[in-house]
Amino acid sequence: MNPDILRERQNATFDIEKLTNILDGGAERTNRRREIREVLVLNDPDFDYGTPTSLPTMILKLREYGISDPVEINWYKSMYWGTGREALGLHYVMFLPTLYTQCDSEQFNKWVPLIIGTYAQTEMGHGTHLRGLETTATFDPATQEFVMHSPTVTSIKWWPGGRNPLFLPLIFLSIPLSASLFDLFLSGFALPTCSGIVIGDIGPKFGFDAVDNGYLKLEHVRIPRENMLMKYAQVKPDGSYVKPLSSKLTYGTMVFIRSLIVGNAGIVLSQCCTIAIRYSAVRHQSEIRAGEAEPQILDYQTQQHKLFPLLATAYAFLFAGQYMIDTYNRISGDINQGDLSEMPELHALSAGLKAFTTWTANTGIEVCRMSCGGHGYSRSSALPDIYVEFTPSCTYEGENTVMMLQTARFLMKSYRQVQAGQQLSGAVSYLNKVHHRVMAPQAVSSQLDLNLNTLVDLYEIRAAMLVELAAQSIQQESARGKCQEDSWNNSTIDLVRASDAHCHYMVLKMFRDKVDQIEDPGVHSVMSTLAHLYAIHGMGNFTGDFLQAGVLTGAQVPSVSKCLKGLLAEVRPSAVLLVDAFDHHDKMLNSVLGRHDGNVYEAMFEWARSSPLNRTEVHESFHKHLKPLQAKL
Ligand SMILES: CCCCCCCCCC/C=C\C/C=C/C(=O)SCCNC(=O)CCNC(=O)[C@H](O)C(C)(C)COP(=O)(O)OP(=O)(O)OC[C@H]1O[C@@H](n2cnc3c(N)ncnc32)[C@H](O)[C@@H]1OP(=O)(O)O
Ligand SMILES: Cc1cc2nc3c(=O)[nH]c(=O)nc-3n(C[C@H](O)[C@H](O)[C@H](O)COP(=O)(O)OP(=O)(O)OC[C@H]3O[C@@H](n4cnc5c(N)ncnc54)[C@H](O)[C@@H]3O)c2cc1C
């Protein structure tokens, strides 16, 4: 083991295993995750790491081991495929959940065990604006079929991931059967027998290469009436239409996957922090004091400033992901029982947190890569591949700006309810106080009150202020004679800013609440330090907001930076131990820089020597192109 890494792991001030258990949701979950990893994957003789041929093996193994829990499926898949996406991702996280949530019982029993499918909602002309989708589904009572059709070039289904060129079970979203409703269809087209279908691949992408994203053009293709997913809405044999309790129930799968993405952003950021911090512990470069040995780059304050706030953010997003999934499970359970009262809140929370966490993680991955210098740019680090695979999460499952505006819609509605004298509950209850809060600068000492509860309050006041400013912008636009829609559009910068602040407050609050639940003194102490770092770092980034909200004075601003530097120094001794607690296996991390043993250089040389370009002493291109040219010169 590299001596630096060895030294970093001595004198631990907290129990790493207990922290890993907290991240997994308990010791039993940690044990199960490791059992899947060590026994069912790594020690499985059929396990052929990450090669395309192992995809069928993986599916059969999941069935053989009876792994059906989505989290356990993901544990298994992430061991098979490491940090990359794979072709079946969409099947497990969108196609199956849609069947689970939108099929009636007869359809469920008929389809769920049997098929692998994709989710074809986006069209070439519309991905965000679902009410603009053009694919038609016209019911023919004479034959009891729906006629599916792509009337325009922009209506061609574009992007469905993992579409199988031979068989196309896919979930469709098609334009309204009635005034404002959408419906989902399962279409089992078997190619090439089924005429009227034109499918293909949309061509090379930025990345995401393991997933074949395709296109699908339909020319009056007929499918049985029974292929409409009929849990919430039905078309009867006589063509009559039974409307769902809410037209937004059709959007349920997107809410589910957005909820999953929140925790996934934490996982991806934790992977990158593991790589960058372990590497920073073994990399020596330059000098701090003339004549002394080159220091570990982790001892540079700028390196700590790059990485430790991201480390805190990774923990924050992992805890936010746990909260999000718990909230999703609770509210979707109520929805299943016909209680839709919290559906708007679930939508607003999942949409906002999906955007907030993926934007932050997306930027954070690049900070981790650049903090590793040239070796961060090598594919051996895994960081370029992680970035390429993660960055579309800011676009898919709801483009982030649009998602932030959905959350803003809920915030504005809540604000208007407070103005009308209603008492709010849930995540926006802090808006109840927006009119009674003393927003003038408080007489506070130049020292910053570092109590975590106080910091959460300051973020709450900041969010409330920005919600009020956005609402005032809309009111001012209206007062200038703008229609409601233009008043909204002319305020969307403020609205996104308010949603961002609301999500930032929510994430810090979740982090604080999780820290409060930690009983082990050592773990509680280090997690409390990270939560403080998360809060103070955000205050440093958005100082203007806190000054404008009157919760920070000019005299206190220097203490924000001073406090930040102190917290970076406080995290330094535990940094490697904190990424060890994420418990990412070398095989899954697949990074020369992030190896648990820290033996980076030896592994990097072996990795380079294994490159296809090094298979022969002299590359064949010399003999094929250069040598003949030399002969002519
Ligand atoms: C364990 C594994 C972890 C892995 C995780 C990551 C793995 C990811 C792998 C997958 C990778 C790639 C696959 C990608 C797939 C896709 O991208 S599928 C397509 C995704 N597309 C979208 O998300 C479309 C986005 N657009 C929309 O959702 C809607 O068009 C939008 C919400 C923007 C607007 O809808 P409208 O119908 O126009 O509604 P609007 O007029 O704005 O509002 C009316 C009203 O409705 C409420 N509303 C809107 N949406 C919802 C909802 N989903 N639930 C509840 N309520 C909703 C809205 O708030 C309004 O309410 P109000 O009371 O009137 O204000
Ligand atoms: C890797 C990848 C995989 C995908 N897989 C699938 C899949 O399996 N199935 C599927 O159905 N789809 C899939 N998609 C498509 C994806 O869902 C859409 O790309 C996404 O919903 C965004 O829609 P769009 O492409 O139409 O972007 P647009 O909405 O056209 O966005 C373009 C710009 O317009 C802005 N904009 C749009 N509307 C508004 C508004 N109301 N207010 C302010 N700004 C606005 C956006 O902010 C953005 O800046 C995938 C996409 C990617 C990148």
Automatic annotation (TrEMBL):
Question: GO:BP terms for this protein?
Answer: fatty acid beta-oxidation using acyl-CoA oxidase; lipid homeostasis; very long-chain fatty acid metabolic process
The record's InterPro entries line, in alphabetical order, gives: ACOX_C_alpha1 (IPR055060), Acyl-CoA_ox_N (IPR029320), Acyl-CoA_Oxase/DH_mid-dom_sf (IPR046373), Acyl-CoA_oxidase (IPR012258), Acyl-CoA_oxidase_C (IPR002655), AcylCo_DH-like_C (IPR036250), AcylCoA_DH/ox_N_sf (IPR037069), AcylCoA_DH/oxidase_NM_dom_sf (IPR009100)
Query: Where does this protein hold FAD?
Result: 122, 161
List the catalytic activities from the record.
dodecanoyl-CoA + O2 = (2E)-dodecenoyl-CoA + H2O2; (5Z,8Z,11Z,14Z,17Z)-eicosapentaenoyl-CoA + O2 = (2E,5Z,8Z,11Z,14Z,17Z)-eicosahexaenoyl-CoA + H2O2; decanoyl-CoA + O2 = (2E)-decenoyl-CoA + H2O2; octadecanoyl-CoA + O2 = (2E)-octadecenoyl-CoA + H2O2
Q: According to its UniProt record, where is this protein located?
A: Peroxisome
Question: Is Oxidoreductase found in the keyword set?
Answer: yes
Main location as per UniProt: other
Q: What are the entry keywords?
A: FAD, Fatty acid metabolism, Flavoprotein, Lipid metabolism, Oxidoreductase, Peroxisome
Q: Can you quote a single GO CC term?
A: peroxisome
Recorded hits in Gene3D superfamilies, A to Z, give: Acyl-CoA dehydrogenase/oxidase, N-terminal domain, Butyryl-CoA Dehydrogenase, subunit A, domain 2, Butyryl-CoA Dehydrogenase, subunit A, domain 3
Q: Where is the Acyl-CoA oxidase C-alpha1 domain?
A: 251-412
Q: In which pathway does it act?
A: Lipid metabolism; peroxisomal fatty acid beta-oxidation
Q: Which cofactor does it need?
A: FAD
Show the active-site residues.
397 (proton acceptor)
Report the residue ranges that make up the Acyl-coenzyme A oxidase N-terminal domain in this protein: 58-115
Q: Where is the Acyl-CoA oxidase C-terminal domain?
A: 451-629
Q: Which GO terms describe its molecular function?
A: acyl-CoA oxidase activity; FAD binding; fatty acid binding
* Entry annotated with the keyword Oxidoreductase: yes
Its family remark reads: Belongs to the acyl-CoA oxidase family.
Official protein name in the record = Acyl-coenzyme A oxidase
* This protein's encoding gene: ACOX1
